[in-house]
Amino acid sequence: MTMYLKKTVLACACALLTVSAFAAAPMAKIPAPGYFRMMLGEFEVTAVNDGTVDLPVDKILVRIKPATVDGALARSFLKSPLETSVNAFLINTGSKLVLVDAGAAGLFGPTLGKFVANLKAAGYQPEQIDEIYITHLHADHVGGLAADGKPVFPNAVRAMHSSR
Q1: Which residues is 39 bridged to in the sheet?
Q2: What residue segments make up the domains of the chain, in order of their start?
Q3: Distances in whole angstroms, Cα of residue 138 to Cα of each of 89, 97, 133
Q4: 105-155 tens-digit pLDDT
Q5: Residue 157 in this model has a pLDDT that exceeds 70
Q6: Whole-number pLDDT of residue 88
């Protein structure tokens, strides 16, 4: 490595250190079962699994014949009901923790409701979440917001777009 290149790399590293923000929770940058973590620019995004649910896609998809759905699934060696993951996404911005959706909790049976345990396995506590953005009001996106009549994320500000 040339001296010029070494000095350039060192200067860039020093510049990054002086402008980076630090969140209350450090970025772990490694995946494990129950969650998957990746960097997206300066943000750390963690997909947190709530579990899986079997969806009868041949019955719930509209404007398409069940036989067409079955054929498409068969070409991928799949069949209905289709085991489908329910995930929510935690974004560590460096200054706050933002959750996108909250999973289904136990609303669809015992194969779901693993979000909080997987969040903790990823190194976070529900109390650390600063903001929650809800993409839409289906139960598999909002079911995990409350448990036993209490908020699961007590310190979070919750937001959702309204078309009205």
Answers
A1: 44
A2: 21-53+85-160
A3: 16, 23, 13
A4: 999 999 999 999 999 999 999 999 999 999 999 999 999 999 999 999 999
A5: yes
A6: 98
Q: Find tokens 């979070």 and name the residue.
A: 156
Q: Please, is 150 exposed, middle or buried when counting C-beta atoms within 10 Å of its C-beta (0-12, 13-18, 19+)?
A: exposed
Q: How far apart (Å, rounded) are the C-alpha atoms in residues 157 and 128? A: 11
**pLDDT tens-digit series, residues 79-98:** 999 999 999 999 999 999 99
- SS3 (DSSP) at 147: strand
Question: Can you give the pLDDT at residue 89?
Answer: 98
**Encoded amino acid at 119, one letter:** L
Question: What is the C-alpha separation between 69 and 65, in angstroms, rounded?
Answer: 7
**How do strand 131-134 and strand 43-55 relate by DSSP bridges?**
unpaired
Q: pTM, whole model, 2 decimals?
A: 0.75
The topology (CATH level 3) of 21-53+85-160 is Metallo-beta-lactamase; Chain A (3.60.15)
